[in-house]
Amino acid sequence: MSDQIEPAEIRSPDDPALVDLCDQLRELSAALDFQDAQSNFPWPQQQLDLCARYGVFRWFLDSQYGGFGWSDHDVTLGYLALSAACQTTTFVITQRTGACRRIALSGNDFARDQLIPNLLDGTQFSTVGISHLTTSHRHLDKPVLQAEETDAGFVLNGFIPWVTGGVHADTIVTGAQLEDGRQILIIVPTDSAGVRAERPADLVALSASHTGKVVLENVQVDRQWLLAGPVENVMTSGIGAKPGGLQTSTLAIGLAAAAVDFIFSESEKRSELVRPAKALRDELEMLKDWLLQSALGKEACGTEELRRRCNSLVLRSTQAALSAAKGLGFITGHPVGRWCREALFFMVWSCPQPVANAQLCQLAGIATE
Ligand SMILES: Cc1cc2nc3c(=O)[nH]c(=O)nc-3n(C[C@H](O)[C@H](O)[C@H](O)COP(=O)(O)OP(=O)(O)OC[C@H]3O[C@@H](n4cnc5c(N)ncnc54)[C@H](O)[C@@H]3O)c2cc1C
Q1: What are phi and psi of 224, to 5 degrees?
Q2: Pairing outcome for strands 195-197 and 171-177
């Protein structure tokens, strides 16, 4: 019998247990950036197990599904705390949650009853591979994942370009397109014949998220795993996740907060850092306020404008932290170098085209069209 003392589940964002969890995640975060002797980055299993024990996976679902039913406002506060402590673990949780919410809220009782209990207690892992229906490979003539309808369900052929934790997943929530253009959202059990998760890509940052391609070759998926469709533009139904959601901006602000805290701690010895640290903190507080207002349904600005501003802040604040850390911050293992690389992720993660365009114009020093 284990003599490990179970921590209290975190029931609200002001629960002191959230601080305990974040301290542990922060402590463990540096190791995720180092490859082992076989050039593999570690998967944050220990971190995910911790999150399961603290009840984090239950924040995102209502009590009728076994969750704690946190409001969007409280989820935002929770994500802000987690992402300031460890971006990789928090990012993996967003993809896991994307799958869980779609499974729970699709109306497919079979899938929900089969999967949700084990996903909430952390004994199973599910993830999403849906970017090819939204932001990835959209310029190609042929859809990268095709579906053919059969009496029993669907046969899938092609690949899912981006799947975080695909090599660890028991199930993947993905989308595919039929020949007539209609799309489906479906759960693929990864032990189905023909599913192959490729070796995760080595990334500029967040390599420990084990993100990579999943190839599907004549994979037969029973209709009982269908979450939505066949219908045109299946993602617009927004099952389990609001379109243009706030979580990307939230994780950017969490990372910016870690960088700004670092500059403040350095400014205790170096007065020249105080003014830029205060300016960045003021901007951070403003954006955090806008974010939380949006989570309450009272938008201070549009979601895309918020994303653009959060992207800008996370890039500037992490680089300001590097400037404050000087050469020491440029040595592998120092957190600010990692934060700078992690901030680059927000330039590409689920980035809507108008935000990418505005970002490019800003970098080019020209006005947005
Ligand atoms: C670390 C990481 C983790 C991720 N995890 C997930 C996940 O778990 N689940 C998920 O669903 N998604 C995930 N994504 C996907 C992500 O949200 C975006 O969809 C993805 O970053 C978009 O980039 P892309 O290279 O696929 O875009 P693409 O649009 O496919 O661009 C790729 C290349 O195609 C060319 N190209 C692009 N547009 C055009 C055009 N109009 N005409 C001609 N050529 C063009 C360019 O050469 C470009 O470099 C992840 C991405 C990353 C980087």
Answers
A1: -65, -15
A2: unpaired
- Name the pTM for this structure: 0.97
Instruction: Name the residue with the closest Cα to ligand 1, atom 24.
Output: 136
Q: If DSSP codes are grouped into helix, strand and coil, which group holds residue 284?
A: helix
Pocket-testing residue among 32, 136, 141, ligand 1, by greatest number of atoms within 8 A of Cβ: 136
Ligand 1 atom index nearest CA of 160: 11
The answer to whether position 242 is within a domain reads no
Calculate how far, in angstroms, residue 213's C-alpha sits from the geometric centre of ligand 1.
12
The span from the CA of 308 to the CA of 305, in Å, is 5
- Provide the 3-class DSSP secondary structure of residue 363: helix
User: In which domain, by residue range, is 148 found?
Assistant: 127-237
Euclidean distance between CA atoms 287 and 275, whole angstroms: 19
Residue ending a domain, among 237, 256, 291, is: 237
Tell whether 35 and 121 lie within a shared domain: yes
What CATH number does residue 291 fall under? 1.20.140.10
Cβ count near 138 (within 10 Å): 12
142 part of a folded domain: yes
Alpha carbons 202 and 34: distance in angstroms, whole number: 11
108-128 confidence digits (pLDDT tens) = 999 999 999 999 999 999 999
Hey, what amino acid is at 69? G
| pLDDT tens track for 168-194 | 999 999 999 999 999 999 999 999 999
The answer to whether the beta carbons of residues 120 and 57 sit under 8 Å apart is yes
* Contact between residue 125 and residue 168 where contact means Cβ atoms under 8 Å apart: yes
Choose one of 80, 103, 125: the last residue of a domain.
125
Which two tokens mark 358?
Answer: 């505005």
